[in-house]
Every structure is written in structure tokens, then in C-alpha cells.
Design brief:
The chain is mainly alpha-helical. It is built from 3 helices and no strands. The chain has helices spanning 6-10, 14-37, 44-67. Helix 2 (14-37) packs antiparallel against helix 3. It starts with 5 loop residues before the first helix and ends with a helix.
Length: 68
């Protein structure tokens, strides 16, 4: 289950989405290190992060294309 639903993300501004994207990238980076060290408690979280990143990027790209 995703942490954020797409309709919740669509109401945010592009700056808020970019900040959220930064935080997710940092979390993804940290989880990669946990996996390599064998310390990862929640392996499913990596998949959730990837999907949230994809959703945010899709929303950012669709808002840019509609404004042009």
C-alpha cells in the first residue's frame, strides 16, 4: 500500500512535490545501504518508495506539459 495516494499528491504545488521527491531519494539511498549490510527491517518499503517516486515524477511531468 502506498504511503501517499495520487489524488493527494495532485493538490500539492510543484515545489512541495520536488521536496517530497528529494526526501524519498534520500530514503531510497539509505535503504540500499541497509540491504547491502543485511540490516533492512522492511524490504517492501523499497518497492513503495520506487512507486511513490514514479507517481511524483508523473504528476510533475503532466503539470509541466499542461502549462506549456
Amino acid at each position: 500500500m502506498a504511503k501517499y495516494k495520487p489524488k493527494d499528491l495532485k493538490v500539492k504545488t510543484s515545489d512541495e512535490l520536488k521536496d517530497q521527491l528529494k526526501l524519498l531519494r534520500k530514503e531510497q539511498f539509505n535503504i540500499r545501504f541497509q540491504v547491502t549490510n543485511g540490516q533492512n527491517e522492511n524490504p517492501a518499503r523499497f518497492k513503495q518508495i520506487r512507486r511513490e517516486i514514479a507517481c511524483i515524477k508523473t504528476i510533475l511531468n503532466s503539470t509541466v506539459s499542461t502549462k506549456v
